Structure formats: structure tokens, C-alpha cells
Amino acid sequence: MIPFDLLSTVVYGGCSAKLPANELSKALSGLPKTPHKNLLVDIETHDDAGVYKINDEVALIQTTDFFPPVCSDAYEFGQIAAANALSDVYAMGGEVITALNIVMFPAKVPLEILKEILKGGTDKVIEAGGVIIGGHTIVDDVPKYGLAVTGTIHPEKIITNSAAKPGDILILTKPIGASIIMAGKRLGEVNEENYKIVLNSMKQLNKEASGIMQKYNVKCATDITGFGLLGHAMKMALGSDVTLKINSNQVPFFNGVIDLIEMGCIPGACFRNLEYVENFCSFENSLSYNNKMILLDAQTSGGLLICCTKNKINDIIRELKNSGYENTAVIGEVLEKEKSLINIY
């Protein structure tokens, strides 16, 4: 295959390329709603996907996600983009059934690169137990890839981001700081071992974690992507009408992240996410600047933020770690609603 570095085509890659959350909220406000008796989850709570009831036993989960390259290798980019799109179904406790490719590709880039991207995506969909049934491709100056995904779930077993209850414990299944590591890699400040750890994390499906949530009757979860841990936690708190308390010292970080922040390697998405959440958060004086910025870092194909009852926490953590999410950690708790949506220390 012709050597080609996908990162040579982008400024922002992965989920850090999302529109700023504040601007997106303005664009979406006032749009007409499309209510229907079978629409079980819509855009109202900014959940991970929409859910439409087919009958008393089956509901469809529908989602889409795509973005510019987050890494240099075409095959790995395809894997990561697909895993990220599939994650929305898993965050809601569903099973993947079909996917459609979404592709924007430059006319001047060798088509062998496109083939490798599609191969990476297809392999992840197969790993998920789903099938690729088609797609759509257009010409664009910057390559972009992702999927439109359909999953299934029982209507009474939907896991949403708006069902957190006071007393629940917060669990995070993957480390954060991926965009900071990717930025550091482009500057030549990240060693190969730490870089590969982040790539492997982004390629890891949340499929097993989804099954564990269903086994233990979890009702509330969300996946952590472009709006950072605090952005997605804020949506959970807002939708659930609660306050989340997060201990930054318990949040798992990727190796090397702190060193990069101290060097000034902080992606712009961190500051955009801060603008989005700062009026809803209470940052305690004990919170270090480094930890604060990591909590705002845009993740690509990140882990799940799970709410569970105290009596199930040990079993859930044990099974998550045994299933390959070895960095799973308790990072906080759910409180009755206070003035701030999130308290961070």
C-alpha cells in the first residue's frame, strides 16, 4: 500500500472536530419537534441515540457519527471511527444489527487509503456482531469517516442519560486524555508505548460493558466523547435533575497526559468545552489546573460513565475489569440537586 499519513490532511481530528457545544445548542434551539407515540428517546435530553418502539418486544436504536482522522494509519482510523459510532448503541444497552458507511474523501488521495479505512470499519462492525449494508461517499478536501448505526433493545431495558438517582455511584470504564496524547504525538512529545495504549483504548468496543450493564439492571449511562467527561456528565445531571460529585483524583488518566499539559499541550477543544460547562460546575479550590483540563479533554471512542447502586458496585467493577476494561474506577456519586450540576474536587 502507498504510504500516506492521514494526519497530514487535518487540523482537528476525531471528536475534537465537533462544533462547539454552545454554538450547537443555539443552532438546535427552536427547531420543530417530531413527536410520535413510539418515539421513546429523542433529542430532548441530548442522549447518545434515538430510540423508536417497533412493538412491545423490540425498539430500534438509531445513531450516526463521523469525523476527520484521529491517527496516521488508515486501517486504525477506520477501526476507531467505527468503534466510536457503535458506542452510542452500547451506551444505551443495545445490540448492533446494521451499519451504513459515511465517507468524505479527497480526490487526490490514493484510493488504497479509502479501502483500508473501510476495511477497518467493517472489521469493527463484524466484531460487534453487525453487518455493513451500504453507505454513501462524496468528494471533500479533508477525509472523514463514520457510520450510521441501527441497534435493537427491549423497550423496557433502555439505558438513558436521564435516569441517575441520588445515592448512585459513578463508574468510568476507560481512561481520559486521548486528545491531549494525540496532540502531543503530533508534536513528537509522546513515546510509542503511550501512543499505542491510547489507540488500543479507542479501538476497544464498549460491547462487553453494555452487556454487563444489562446484567445488573443499570438504568443510566452515557459514553464519553467530544464534550469531555464534564460535558457529558453535565448532560446526565441536567437530564436526571440531579447533581454529580466527581473526585478528579480518582478519574483514570492516560500515561503522559499530565506532563503534556505542563508543557502547554492543551487542545482547543478543552477550552471550548470549558466555555460550555463552566456556568454549571463548581470547581473546588483543591482541584488542580492539570486535572481540570483533563476532565474537559475531548475523547474519541471513550469509555462509559455508568450510574449504579451501591450494592452492585463491587460485582460490576469486577466484571468490567475481567472483561478488558482494566482501568475501570469509581469516580464519584450522584447527589440530590444542588445549585451546581457538577461539583468537582
Description:
The protein is of the alpha+beta class and 345 residues long. The protein has two domains: 6-153, 60s Ribosomal Protein L30, Chain: A (2-Layer Sandwich); 169-344, Phosphoribosyl-aminoimidazole Synthetase, Chain A, domain 2 (Alpha-Beta Complex). Helix content is 35%, strand content 22%. The chain has helices at 21-28, 74-91, 111-128, 178-186, 192-203, 207-215, 228-240, 257-262, 268-277, 289-295, 313-322; strands at 39-41, 50-53, 59-67, 95-105, 131-139, 144-153, 169-172, 220-223, 243-246, 281-283, 304-308, 329-335, 342-344. Helix 2 packs parallel to helix 3 (111-128). The longest helix is centred in the N-terminal third of the chain and has 18 residues, at 74-91. The chain is globular, with a radius of gyration of 19 Å. The N and C termini lie far apart (49 Å). The mean pLDDT is 94.
Using the coordinates above, name the CATH class of the largest domain.
Answer: Alpha Beta
Mean pLDDT: 94
Most strands sheet: 7 strands, mixed
Alpha-carbon distance between the two ends: 49 Å
CATH topology description of the largest domain: Phosphoribosyl-aminoimidazole Synthetase, Chain A, domain 2
Strand and helix order: HEEEHEHEEEHHHEHEHHEHEHEE
What's the structural domain tally? 2
